[in-house]
């Protein structure tokens, strides 16, 4: 069984600020909502999460294979008058149909492997084999999403006038401290319209996430029905 949980965070709370500014710390708090993973297994693979900030509210969304215990986190960082909500996500997944069209939101880690430019690396040491660099231009970000869609069972709808039906939202680097080192992830919010081409692959993507950085609030896609 899979669960989807929504928690309203109090963005002006002193207790909530460390979580909202450090994905590693928020990841740790989320993992405390679940029982420890069996020996030899990574609990990180069980959980996707994302924080959405609006003009008047901030929400934490969690998708997990175990029902979370949200009481401690809600008491520490949540809005007291809005209780956390947990749904059976498996039932929602069954409502997603082959060929269906849906609005979506995805905040993803939009980075790519740096090109190996040989001797030019001496001038630009950041471009070395194995190094990952942010995708900066919006057009390239859309291309990245289209490549992801081809392996995750969906396609981005296009209009004759405007091309891919996707809008680039807030983007930027997420820099935070993990243990004794600094981590940098480049995130991009995508909002758009998709069609489901491979229902099984798509349902897997909704549960397992898209792209890298899943432990730090990236890769969770959410859907809304649309009429085309």
What does this structure look like?
It is a single chain. This protein is of the alpha+beta class. The chain has 2 domains: 3-93, Crispr-associated protein, domain 1 (Alpha-Beta Plaits), CATH 3.30.70.1200; 96-225, 2-Layer Sandwich (Alpha-Beta Plaits). Helices cover 23% and strands 36% of the residues. The chain contains 6 helices and 13 strands. The strands form 4 sheets. Strands 5, 8, 11, 12 and 13 form a 5-stranded antiparallel β-sheet that branches. Strands 2-3-1-4 form a 4-stranded antiparallel β-sheet. Strand 11 (166-178) and strand 12 (181-196) form a beta hairpin.
How is this structure best summarized?
The chain has two domains: 3-93, 2-Layer Sandwich (Alpha-Beta Plaits); 96-225, Alpha-Beta Plaits (2-Layer Sandwich).
Task: Report the total helices.
Answer: 6
What is the CATH architecture term of the largest domain? 2-Layer Sandwich
Number of DSSP-assigned strands: 13
CATH fold label of the largest domain: Alpha-Beta Plaits
Sketch the topology as an H/E string, one letter per element: EHHEEHEHEEEHEEEEEHE
First-to-last CA distance:
31 Å
């Amino acid at each position: 069984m899979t669960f989807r949980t929504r928690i309203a965070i109090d963005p002006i709370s002193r207790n909530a600020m460390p979580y909202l500014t450090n994905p590693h710390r928020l990841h740790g708090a989320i993992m405390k909502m679940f029982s420890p993973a069996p020996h030899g297994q990574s609990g990180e693979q069980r959980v996707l999460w994302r924080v959405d900030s609006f003009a008047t509210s901030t929400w934490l969304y969690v998708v997990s294979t175990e029902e979370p215990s949200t009481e401690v986190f809600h008491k520490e960082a949540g809005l007291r008058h809005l209780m956390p909500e947990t749904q059976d996500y498996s039932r929602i997944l069954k409502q997603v149909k082959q060929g269906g069209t849906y609005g979506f939101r995805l905040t993803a880690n939009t980075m790519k492997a740096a090109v190996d430019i040989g001797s030019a690396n001496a001038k630009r040491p950041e471009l070395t084999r194995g190094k990952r660099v942010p995708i900066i231009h919006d057009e390239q970000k859309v291309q990245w999403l289209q490549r992801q869609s081809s392996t995750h069972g969906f396609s981005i709808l296009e209009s004759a006038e405007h091309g891919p039906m996707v809008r680039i939202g807030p983007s930027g680097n997420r820099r935070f401290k993990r243990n004794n080192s600094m981590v940098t992830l480049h995130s991009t919010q995508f909002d758009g319209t998709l069609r489901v081409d491979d229902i099984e692959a798509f349902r897997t993507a909704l549960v397992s996430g898209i792209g890298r950085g899943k432990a730090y609030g990236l890769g969770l896609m959410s859907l809304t029905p649309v009429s085309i």
